[in-house]
Specification:
Layout: E1 5-8, H1 16-24, E2 29-31, E3 45-50, E4 53-58, H2 82-94, H3 100-107, H4 118-132, E5 139-141, E6 153-155, H5 177-180, H6 188-195, H7 199-202
Parallel strand pairs: 1-2, 1-6, 2-5
Antiparallel strand pairs: 3-4
Length: about 200
């Protein structure tokens, strides 16, 4: 049983606020590995800023990844070429950003090689993002599922709702902001591609 620190779910290209919490609670960070897979969450989707406004990228999962499948056992579906779609979308949305080309080679392999499980894929991406953001927090992983934790643990498993734009967030430059204004709490890649090495200071 975890006694203190923060418990976070494993997301795909998590939103900015996720890294704000991760940065705040270091070094006691735990990642939930044993929960049942909840649908319609950031566990398999991320929001980026497209020329038309908010664009959601979804990693499809194998049918049968029902509510009772442990999140670490959920498999990615490759029935259609979602990796190509996601990579083309990231290029179209961030090619004009200051730092996309700087980080492009780091992200490209994730859209070329296939990974069986969603959790493993997200984990590798999270490790990359932490490295690029210079967040040196070691990540611990749960061994069993616990419905509740002591008050000394900040449980974020149900936080970061997709519609939650009530969080306070200081605006930073976004490529298409002249069209739709500043969009809050997008995927961390929006901050990274626009701010580069300064992203960690923003967090």
């Amino acid at each position: 049983m975890i006694e203190k620190g923060a418990l976070l779910p494993m997301f795909y290209l998590p939103p900015v606020d996720y890294f704000t919490q991760l940065n705040q609670f270091k070094p006691e960070i735990w990642i939930e590995r044993d929960e049942h897979f909840p649908k319609q969450t950031y566990r398999n989707r991320a929001n980026i800023y497209s020329p038309d406004g908010l664009l959601t990228l979804v990693v499809p999962v194998v049918k049968g990844s029902k509510v009772h499948t442990s999140v670490k056992d959920v498999k990615i579906s490759y029935d259609f070429k979602w990796q190509r779609l996601h990579w083309l979308s990231l290029q179209a949305c961030y090619r004009r950003s200051a730092y996309f080309e700087y980080y492009e080679a780091d992200f490209a392999p994730f859209y070329e090689q296939q990974t069986t499980h969603l959790f493993d894929y997200n984990q590798k991406l999270l490790e990359l993002l932490n490295r690029l953001l210079k967040i040196k927090t070691p990540l611990n992983y749960t061994e069993t599922y616990e419905a509740t934790y002591p008050e000394t643990v900040s449980d974020f498993r149900k936080a970061f709702a997709k519609k939650d734009v009530t969080i306070e967030q200081k605006p930073y430059f976004q490529v298409f902001e002249e069209r739709k204004g500043f969009l809050k709490n997008l995927s961390i890649v929006d901050l990274l591609f626009n701010q580069g090495p300064q992203a960690v200071n923003y967090l």
